[in-house]
Amino acid sequence: MTSRTSINSPASAGAIIRTRRQECGLSQHALADKAGVSRKFLIDLEAGHERAELGKTLAVLAALGLSLEATDPIPRGSDHDPARRDYTQTFNELIARHDFEFAIKMLADYTTASLKAGRPLLQRSPRLKDPKWSAALAGITTYTAHRLGQPAPSWTRRIKPLKEAWMPAESYRHVREPMKQLTMSETPEEIAAMNVFIRERSLGTA
Prior knowledge:
about 210 residues, mainly alpha, two-stranded antiparallel ribbon, 9 helices, globular
């Protein structure tokens, strides 16, 4: 007998879609092309973005042979629960694959999950080899802690600010000067102190 599970949240839909895509051996680019959507939309959808358009979501589900009443059980476990995700492993894997666009999405995921959990989820250093991403996570962890009225984890104080200004978005696309100026003006001070610049709204907390 086939079990049936209702998809009742954006996170549930995203978890099922990402798991089925991986089982089908499809890259995000391949699935996006097959469904006729952009890769950016698919990234947001897999991450459980709450504003995903229904029509495009249905197109992605159809491309994977899924419907809103899925025959697949909703994936469980730390990989699909932001509060239990191993962010050290997640960021190390994404950076090693140069999947910077999704890594930026995970910065927002880490921030919102930490705020919801009531504490920064990275209590220990992720020990990333890339100093830019280490600085970004240290700044965001400090920002999250201050938002919660807590001291930042001690590892954040061991990460040195970058010598030159850096925007994570520049890892995968060109950022025009007007957007650079806007991003710098809307970056929380804890993150800017690390010489990393990402708009507060991009973290989903503005």
